[in-house]
C-alpha cells in the first residue's frame, strides 16, 4: 500500500512518480539487502571523501588521507577525543 512520502527525502529534480517507484523498490528489499546497500553506499561516500582529501592534499600518504577522512566524518571534537594531539588539515 502506497503511503505519502516526505518530498524533502528526494532531490528536487526527481519527479514524484519516479520517487514513489524508487521508494517502493526499496521497501520490497529484504532487511539484509537494505543493509548491504547502505554499507556499500557508505563505502562509496568514504571513497569520494578520500578522493577530495587527495585532491586538496596531494602530499598526503594513505595514512594522512585516512586520518583526514576520519576527521571529516567524526567532526573535530570526536576526532580529537579518539586521536588526541593529532592535527591534520582536511
Overview of this protein structure:
The protein has helices at residues 16-28, 31-56, 62-74, 76-82. By secondary structure, the chain is mostly helical. It has one domain (7-82). α2 (31-56) crosses α3 and α3 (62-74) crosses α4. The chain is elongated, with a radius of gyration of 18 Å.
Q: Major beta sheet, specifics? A: none
Strand content: under 5%
Radius of gyration computed on alpha carbons = 18 Å
Residues in helices, as a percent range: 55-70%
Written as H for each helix and E for each strand, in order along the chain, the element string is HHHH
State the helix count.
Answer: 4
Number of domains: 1
Output mean pLDDT.
90
- Count all strands and give the number: 0
Helix and strand arrangement:
Layout: H1 16-28, H2 31-56, H3 62-74, H4 76-82
Quick tags:
elongated; mainly alpha; 66% helix; single chain; 90 residues
Could you provide a short overview of the structure?
This protein has one domain. The chain has 90 residues and is mainly α. The protein has four helices and no strands.
